[in-house]
Amino acid sequence: MQITSLHSLNAFLLPIKTVGVQGDCRSYSYVCGISSKDEPDWESLIFLARLIPRMCHNINRVVYIFGPPVKEPPTDVTPTFLTTGVLSTLRQADFEAQNILRESGYAGKISQMPVILTPLHFDRDPLQKQPSCQRSVVIRTFITSDFMTGIPATPGNEIPVEVIYIFLLMYIFHTSYIL
Protein backbone atom coordinates (compact mmCIF):
# COMPACT_ATOMS: atom_id res chain seq x y z
CA MET A 1 0.00 0.00 0.00
CA GLN A 2 1.38 3.42 -0.92
CA ILE A 3 0.70 6.19 1.60
CA THR A 4 0.87 9.58 -0.05
CA SER A 5 2.08 12.74 1.65
CA LEU A 6 5.14 14.90 1.24
CA HIS A 7 7.14 11.68 1.54
CA SER A 8 6.58 8.45 -0.31
CA LEU A 9 5.95 5.67 2.22
CA ASN A 10 5.22 1.99 1.66
CA ALA A 11 3.29 0.17 4.38
CA PHE A 12 2.79 -3.59 4.56
CA LEU A 13 1.87 -6.33 7.00
CA LEU A 14 4.79 -8.38 8.30
CA PRO A 15 4.36 -12.13 8.88
CA ILE A 16 5.12 -11.93 12.61
CA LYS A 17 3.04 -11.18 15.68
CA THR A 18 4.09 -9.29 18.80
CA VAL A 19 2.73 -8.83 22.28
CA GLY A 20 1.40 -5.35 22.85
CA VAL A 21 -1.18 -3.43 24.79
CA GLN A 22 -4.35 -2.11 23.18
CA GLY A 23 -6.67 -0.37 25.60
CA ASP A 24 -6.44 -2.17 28.93
CA CYS A 25 -5.64 -5.58 27.45
CA ARG A 26 -2.64 -7.39 26.07
CA SER A 27 -2.85 -8.13 22.39
CA TYR A 28 -1.05 -10.60 20.20
CA SER A 29 -1.21 -9.03 16.75
CA TYR A 30 0.71 -8.37 13.57
CA VAL A 31 3.38 -5.77 12.85
CA CYS A 32 3.05 -3.11 10.16
CA GLY A 33 6.29 -2.28 8.37
CA ILE A 34 6.87 1.10 6.75
CA SER A 35 9.73 1.89 4.39
CA SER A 36 10.62 4.84 2.21
CA LYS A 37 13.08 6.05 -0.39
CA ASP A 38 13.20 9.40 1.45
CA GLU A 39 14.75 10.32 4.79
CA PRO A 40 12.30 9.47 7.59
CA ASP A 41 9.92 12.23 8.67
CA TRP A 42 9.77 11.13 12.29
CA GLU A 43 6.80 13.30 13.24
CA SER A 44 4.67 11.76 10.48
CA LEU A 45 5.89 8.27 11.31
CA ILE A 46 5.01 8.67 15.01
CA PHE A 47 1.55 9.90 13.96
CA LEU A 48 1.07 6.83 11.74
CA ALA A 49 2.37 4.54 14.48
CA ARG A 50 -0.39 5.80 16.77
CA LEU A 51 -3.09 5.82 14.08
CA ILE A 52 -2.57 2.44 12.40
CA PRO A 53 -3.15 0.24 15.51
CA ARG A 54 -6.26 2.29 16.37
CA MET A 55 -7.71 1.74 12.91
CA CYS A 56 -6.42 -1.80 12.25
CA HIS A 57 -7.08 -3.90 15.34
CA ASN A 58 -5.04 -6.82 14.01
CA ILE A 59 -1.89 -4.61 14.18
CA ASN A 60 -0.28 -3.60 17.49
CA ARG A 61 3.19 -2.44 16.41
CA VAL A 62 4.53 -0.26 13.62
CA VAL A 63 8.19 -0.32 12.60
CA TYR A 64 10.18 1.87 10.25
CA ILE A 65 12.50 -0.22 8.09
CA PHE A 66 15.76 1.51 7.22
CA GLY A 67 17.58 1.00 3.98
CA PRO A 68 16.20 1.10 0.47
CA PRO A 69 12.41 0.87 0.15
CA VAL A 70 11.21 -2.68 0.66
CA LYS A 71 10.10 -3.90 -2.77
CA GLU A 72 8.97 -7.37 -1.76
CA PRO A 73 7.65 -7.63 1.80
CA PRO A 74 8.48 -10.98 3.39
CA THR A 75 5.69 -13.53 3.41
CA ASP A 76 7.49 -16.14 5.50
CA VAL A 77 10.06 -16.21 8.30
CA THR A 78 13.53 -17.59 8.83
CA PRO A 79 13.34 -20.70 11.02
CA THR A 80 14.85 -19.53 14.30
CA PHE A 81 15.62 -21.41 17.50
CA LEU A 82 17.47 -20.41 20.64
CA THR A 83 20.78 -21.76 19.41
CA THR A 84 24.22 -20.54 20.38
CA GLY A 85 24.65 -18.76 17.03
CA VAL A 86 21.32 -16.94 17.18
CA LEU A 87 21.87 -15.88 20.80
CA SER A 88 25.40 -14.74 19.95
CA THR A 89 24.10 -12.55 17.11
CA LEU A 90 21.48 -11.01 19.40
CA ARG A 91 24.02 -10.40 22.18
CA GLN A 92 26.45 -8.76 19.76
CA ALA A 93 23.75 -6.46 18.33
CA ASP A 94 22.59 -5.52 21.84
CA PHE A 95 26.16 -4.91 23.02
CA GLU A 96 26.92 -2.64 20.06
CA ALA A 97 23.64 -0.71 20.35
CA GLN A 98 24.04 -0.13 24.09
CA ASN A 99 27.67 0.97 23.61
CA ILE A 100 26.68 3.47 20.93
CA LEU A 101 23.91 4.84 23.14
CA ARG A 102 26.26 5.10 26.15
CA GLU A 103 29.08 6.74 24.14
CA SER A 104 26.63 9.28 22.69
CA GLY A 105 25.81 10.51 26.19
CA TYR A 106 22.10 9.84 25.73
CA ALA A 107 21.83 6.64 27.76
CA GLY A 108 20.47 8.60 30.74
CA LYS A 109 17.71 10.16 28.63
CA ILE A 110 16.38 6.82 27.38
CA SER A 111 14.62 4.55 29.89
CA GLN A 112 15.23 1.39 27.91
CA MET A 113 16.38 0.30 24.49
CA PRO A 114 15.52 -3.32 23.78
CA VAL A 115 17.29 -4.85 20.81
CA ILE A 116 15.25 -7.52 19.08
CA LEU A 117 16.31 -10.09 16.52
CA THR A 118 13.45 -10.92 14.14
CA PRO A 119 13.23 -13.81 11.69
CA LEU A 120 12.59 -11.50 8.74
CA HIS A 121 14.52 -11.65 5.48
CA PHE A 122 13.65 -8.68 3.25
CA ASP A 123 13.75 -8.16 -0.51
CA ARG A 124 13.82 -11.68 -1.82
CA ASP A 125 12.57 -12.07 -5.37
CA PRO A 126 9.36 -14.12 -5.06
CA LEU A 127 9.92 -15.61 -8.52
CA GLN A 128 13.17 -17.21 -7.36
CA LYS A 129 11.40 -18.89 -4.41
CA GLN A 130 14.48 -18.30 -2.25
CA PRO A 131 13.86 -19.51 1.32
CA SER A 132 14.07 -17.04 4.18
CA CYS A 133 17.54 -17.37 5.72
CA GLN A 134 18.46 -13.97 7.23
CA ARG A 135 17.32 -12.07 10.28
CA SER A 136 16.74 -8.38 10.98
CA VAL A 137 17.57 -6.27 14.02
CA VAL A 138 14.99 -4.03 15.65
CA ILE A 139 15.78 -1.29 18.18
CA ARG A 140 13.23 0.47 20.34
CA THR A 141 14.17 3.56 22.30
CA PHE A 142 11.59 4.17 25.01
CA ILE A 143 11.00 6.80 27.68
CA THR A 144 8.97 5.95 30.78
CA SER A 145 8.77 6.74 34.46
CA ASP A 146 6.86 3.66 35.60
CA PHE A 147 7.77 1.02 32.95
CA MET A 148 4.07 0.41 32.37
CA THR A 149 3.33 3.29 30.01
CA GLY A 150 5.60 5.58 28.04
CA ILE A 151 6.50 7.08 24.71
CA PRO A 152 9.00 6.21 21.99
CA ALA A 153 12.11 8.37 22.00
CA THR A 154 11.78 10.18 18.70
CA PRO A 155 14.99 10.47 16.66
CA GLY A 156 15.81 14.12 16.25
CA ASN A 157 14.01 15.06 19.49
CA GLU A 158 14.89 12.89 22.48
CA ILE A 159 17.78 11.15 20.74
CA PRO A 160 19.93 12.42 17.85
CA VAL A 161 19.29 10.73 14.52
CA GLU A 162 23.05 10.19 14.21
CA VAL A 163 23.01 7.80 17.20
CA ILE A 164 20.52 5.57 15.37
CA TYR A 165 22.45 5.83 12.08
CA ILE A 166 25.75 4.82 13.69
CA PHE A 167 24.15 1.57 14.79
CA LEU A 168 22.58 1.04 11.37
CA LEU A 169 25.90 1.43 9.60
CA MET A 170 27.35 -1.42 11.65
CA TYR A 171 24.89 -4.00 10.36
CA ILE A 172 24.35 -5.47 6.94
CA PHE A 173 20.89 -6.69 7.97
CA HIS A 174 17.82 -4.59 7.53
CA THR A 175 17.30 -2.70 10.75
CA SER A 176 13.93 -1.53 11.98
CA TYR A 177 12.94 1.09 14.48
CA ILE A 178 9.79 0.51 16.54
CA LEU A 179 7.71 3.66 16.55
TrEMBL record:
GO CC, alphabetical: cytosol
Entries under SUPFAM superfamilies matching the protein: GMP synthetase C-terminal dimerisation domain
GO molecular function, one term: GMP synthase activity
Keywords for this protein: ATP-binding, GMP biosynthesis, Ligase, Nucleotide-binding, Purine biosynthesis
Stated name of the protein: Guanine monophosphate synthase
Organism: Molossus molossus (Pallas' mastiff bat)
